[in-house]
Write a structure and sequence with these properties.
- The chain is α+β, with helices and mostly antiparallel strands and 485 residues long.
- The protein has a single domain, classed as Alpha Horseshoe (Serine Threonine Protein Phosphatase 5, Tetratricopeptide repeat), CATH 1.25.40.390.
- It contains 18 helices and 14 strands.
- A hairpin with a 6-residue loop joins strand 11 and strand 12.
- Helix 7 packs parallel to helix 9.
C-alpha cells in the first residue's frame, strides 16, 4: 500500500446541481493539520465527502469494479484487439498489465479505507452517541465494511467453498502500515461487526433528514437501508439464507424504494441514480465520459464489445415484452449493438441543460431488485410459493408475464408442473444487472461455469480449462507482499 493518504474534499450542492472539488494531500508530517481538520463537523463532513469521491475513481467503481474489469471477467464484455483485456479475459493473473490493474484496485481501496479510518479515529467520532456524529460514524463503518467486502469477494476464496481459507488485512486504523493478514472467517466477523454497529447508529437517521446539507439526498450516502442491503449481500455470500432474507425483507418492507414500472426502465440508470430503485449510489458528474468511450463507441482495440450471444437470454422462454432488451442495448451508427444502459442520454444528445433537475448524476451501487432476487433464492426450498412471488414481482415490472408454473409435455401433451429454479433466478439477475459489475461475484458465489464471450471455451467450476488454475480468486498483488519484507 502506498504510504501517502489523500483526503479528497468534495462539496456537493445537489439542490442547485453544482459541485466543486479540492484536493488535500496529508503526509505524515501533516498529522496535526489532519487532526485539526477532523475536530469540527465541517471537517468531518469534508473528509466523508472525500471518501465518497474516491469511490468513483476509475480504479474503483467509476470503471474497473463496475462496467469494466468485472464484466470482462464474467465474459459479458470483451475487446479482442486489446492485449490487456484479452489477458484479463483469459484470467492470466501473472500478466504484467493484469497484475498492475489489480494492484491499482488493491492500493486505491485500502487507501480509501485508511481515509475512512481517519474519520473513525477522530475524537468526535470514537464514542459518538449523539447526532450528527452518530451519522458520520455509521456511514463510515458501513463504508469500511462495504469496501473490505468487495476486496474479499475479489481476492479471497468463496466463503461457502472454504470458510477456513486465508483472508485479507482488515484495516481499522489510520496508519502507514498495513495490518496483518487474517483468516477469511475473521474478515467476515469484522465486516458483520462494522455493519451491525452502523445499523445501530443509523437507526433514527430519518428523524434528522433535511437538518443541514449532509442530511439531504441520502441516496448518495451509505444510509441505513444501504447497510441492511449490504448485510443481505454478505449473509447470502456466507450461505446464511435466514439472515440474508431477514435483511432483504427489511429493505423491501421499508417501502422507501420501489420497482419502477416497465415503461420507466429506459434510461433509468443511464448515468443517473434511479429515482425509485437506487438504495445507494455515488455522485459522479463525469461518468458519461467514461462509459461513452468504452461502451458506446466502437474504437478498435479500446471499446468493449458485447458477448456473442448476449441477446439470447433476453429473448428466451418468456411471455411478454422484456423492456430491458430494448432499453439496455442499441445499435450505433455502425449498426453494432452497444450497451447503452449506462450512457446519459442528455449528454449523448448534447442537451444536458434539459436534464430534469431532480436527477442525480452518478453510479447506482445497490438497487432494490437485488433484494427481491435474494428473497426468491433464500425462500426457494422452504417456501417456493413465496419465492415465486418475489421473483415474479420483478418480472412483471420489466414487462414479462409471471413465470408459467405448468408447461405442456412435448411427448404426452399433458400439463406438467415447472417449479421456479435457481437457474430462473440467475437468468433474471443476468438480465437485470448486465454491465453493473455484480454478475462475476454472483458466479463466484455459486461456483458457476464461465463460458467465454464467443462460447468456444467453458471454464468448469471456477477452474481454467487450459491451465487448471483457479480463476475465481485473484492473487494478492506482489506490491503488498514486497512491502512487508
Amino acid at each position: 500500500m502506498k504510504k501517502v493518504l489523500y483526503i479528497t474534499h468534495l462539496v456537493v450542492a445537489l439542490l442547485a446541481m453544482t459541485s466543486c472539488e479540492d484536493f488535500l494531500n496529508i503526509i505524515p508530517e501533516g498529522q496535526a493539520k489532519r487532526d485539526e481538520l477532523l475536530l469540527t463537523t465541517e471537517g468531518l463532513e469534508e473528509a466523508m465527502y472525500g471518501v465518497y469521491s474516491q469511490l468513483r475513481s476509475t480504479t474503483l467503481y467509476g470503471q474497473e469494479l463496475h462496467f469494466h474489469t468485472l464484466e470482462i471477467m464474467a465474459h459479458n464484455m470483451h475487446c479482442s484487439g486489446h492485449t490487456t483485456i484479452t489477458a484479463l479475459g483469459n484470467f492470466e493473473y501473472d500478466n504484467t498489465n493484469v497484475k498492475s490493474l489489480f494492484e491499482g484496485i488493491w492500493t486505491t481501496m485500502y487507501k480509501n479505507i485508511s481515509n475512512v479510518n481517519s474519520v473513525l479515529n477522530s475524537p468526535l467520532i470514537v464514542d459518538a452517541e449523539e447526532f450528527p456524529y452518530t451519522i458520520y460514524k455509521g456511514e463510515a463503518l458501513g463504508l469500511r465494511a462495504f469496501m473490505h467486502f468487495d476486496l474479499v469477494r475479489l481476492f479471497a476464496e468463496q466463503y461457502t467453498q472454504n470458510p477456513s481459507a486465508a483472508g485479507l488485512p482488515y484495516a481499522t486504523e489510520f496508519s502507514l502500515n498495513t495490518p496483518d493478514f487474517e483468516s477469511l472467517q475473521d474478515n467476515y466477523k469484522h465486516i458483520l461487526a462494522d455493519l451491525h454497529e452502523a445499523e445501530r447508529l443509523l437507526d433514527n437517521e430519518e428523524e434528522h433528514e433535511g437538518e443541514g446539507s449532509f442530511m439531504l439526498d441520502r441516496q448518495i450516502h451509505f444510509n441505513k437501508h444501504a447497510v441492511k442491503a449490504t448485510l443481505a449481500r454478505v449473509y447470502l455470500t456466507m450461505g446464511d439464507k435466514e439472515n440474508a432474507a431477514k435483511y432483504a425483507k427489511e429493505v423491501i418492507d421499508a417501502k422507501k424504494y420501489y420497482l419502477k414500472e416497465m415503461t420507466e426502465v429506459r434510461n433509468d440508470v443511464a448515468g443517473v441514480l434511479s429515482k425509485k430503485e437506487c438504495i445507494f449510489g455515488v455522485y459522479y458528474a463525469g461518468f458519461f465520459t467514461q462509459v461513452y468511450e468504452k461502451l458506446h463507441k466502437t474504437t478498435t482495440f479500446y471499446s468493449l464489445n458485447l458477448r456473442q450471444d448476449f441477446d439470447e437470454i433476453y429473448n428466451r422462454d418468456h411471455i411478454g415484452n422484456d423492456y430491458r432488451w430494448s432499453s439496455y442495448f442499441i445499435t450505433n451508427h455502425d449498426q453494432v449493438y452497444r450497451l447503452s444502459k449506462l450512457t446519459d442520454i442528455y449528454e449523448l444528445d448534447n442537451n444536458a441543460a434539459s436534464r430534469p433537475t431532480d436527477l442525480i448524476l452518478g453510479i447506482n451501487m445497490i438497487r432494490i431488485p437485488e433484494m427481491y432476487y435474494i428473497m426468491a433464492e433464500t425462500l426457494l426450498e422452504d417456501d417456493p410459493d413465496a419465492a415465486l412471488g418475489f421473483y415474479n414481482e420483478v418480472r412483471t415490472h420489466r414487462g414479462l408475464e409471471p413465470l408459467p408454473t405448468t408447461v405442456t409435455d412435448e411427448i404426452t401433451g399433458e400439463l406438467v408442473e415447472r417449479p421456479l429454479t435457481l437457474q430462473h433466478i440467475n437468468e433474471e439477475r443476468y438480465k437485470e444487472y448486465f454491465g453493473e459489475g455484480q454478475l462475476f461475484f454472483n458466479m463466484k458465489r455459486l461456483n458457476q461455469d464461465i463460458s467465454i464471450f464467443d462460447n468456444t471455451i467453458t471454464h468448469k467450476g471456477g477452474i481454467h480449462a487450459e491451465t487448471g488454475k483457479k480463476i475465481y480468486v485473484v492473487p494478492i498483488p506482489d506490491i503488498e507482499i514486497e512491502n512487508r519484507y
